[in-house]
Amino acid sequence: DSADAAAALIKEHAAASKAEAGSLRFEALQRINRNNHFVIMEAWAGRNSRAAHAASTHTVSFREKLQPMLYAPYDERPHVALLAPSPQYMPDGNESTIYVITHADIIPPEQFAPCDRRPDPNGPCGNDLITDMAKLSRNHDGNLRYDVLTQSNRPNHMTVVEMWEDAGAQAAHQSQPDKKAFRDELAGIRANSGVNPDPQFVLNMLTGSLWDERLFRLISIEDGPARVEHVVR
Hints:
Blueprint: H1 2-18, E1 23-31, E2 37-44, H2 47-55, H3 57-66, E3 75-83, E4 98-105, H4 126-137, E5 143-151, E6 157-164, H5 167-174, H6 177-186, H7 201-204, E7 212-218, E8 227-232
Parallel strand pairs: 2-8, 3-8
Antiparallel strand pairs: 1-2, 1-7, 3-5, 4-6, 4-7, 5-6
Helix pairs in contact: 1-3, 4-6
């Protein structure tokens, strides 16, 4: 019941927020197979419009009403674009659209060249590895959006946002050779080898966390307690 009420509350909040001055984009998503997890993605024209939104009566009321439904803290993460178009040029989703949200923590020495721990001396470092994958993925069939954002206060913490026409397109993307090579390289495995060439496996990893892809759709009404993550740009 809590997730059902949270979904309705988030949809109401999204509608009010979209009408605010300076609102460029406001998307409310619900996780597939874990319907009590939600993501709100919003983009604002500037800090002043974002601050006005945070202080607005409907936002304050939304937070107060949502609080009793939460089983984890409200997790708000301001971001800036590393590789993303202007929000007004992003496509709108529908009931078939699959969204994929991935948090990636790149170990700071591995973000930019020269980085020492990648297994392929000629391969890219962390930031380039992720943005190169995004550029390739934008050409895969059914891709609507593949953006890379970095947290404002922790630039080595990134959020990758994908949109796919449907579940079939997203599944086909996962089996593409360049996607598999990307996952291997990020984890410290030499691309296309299928094995780790270095016994010090962990030392080869570029990331401080797993590549944790989470699938979402535009919000719907389901049951269960609620958890909300918040991506702000």
